[in-house]
Design brief:
mainly alpha; elongated
């Protein structure tokens, strides 16, 4: 009877662990899709800015059009940075769900090492 209870508890913990891994993996995949889409948006916005600058150089548009075109890439870059932060958090959650250790101090030291590059 005791062995059956221990086995049932073990199965329950294993199922919970598998759910956590599955959830973390789905979250990470979703974040990756959004980051990829935002990266494409940034590329398009950057191209539109180049076109606006070229048209300004040719006298076809005012500088106001150029400054307006500059806003979109900047806002998109800011959003992309936030999305990448969320993607890193999802990666950390997956590592944790897989049994890897994670602590805020370790994350901070990794961020500092990345910034030093």
């Amino acid at each position: 009877r005791q062995i059956g209870l221990v086995a049932a508890a073990f199965r329950g913990r294993m199922l919970q662990a598998l759910r956590e891994v599955d959830d973390a993996l789905a979250e990470l995949q979703g974040r990756a899709t959004v980051v990829e889409a935002q990266s494409r948006t940034l590329a398009s916005a950057s191209q539109a800015l180049k076109v606006a600058r070229s048209r300004y150089d040719q006298g076809a548009v005012s500088y106001l059009d150029v400054t307006e075109a500059e806003r979109t890439p900047l806002a998109t870059e800011r959003a992309l940075a936030q999305l990448r932060g969320a993607q890193w958090a999802a990666t950390a959650q997956l590592v944790k769900a897989l049994g890897g250790g994670w602590s805020p101090a370790a994350g901070a030291s990794m961020a500092q090492a990345g910034a030093a590059r």
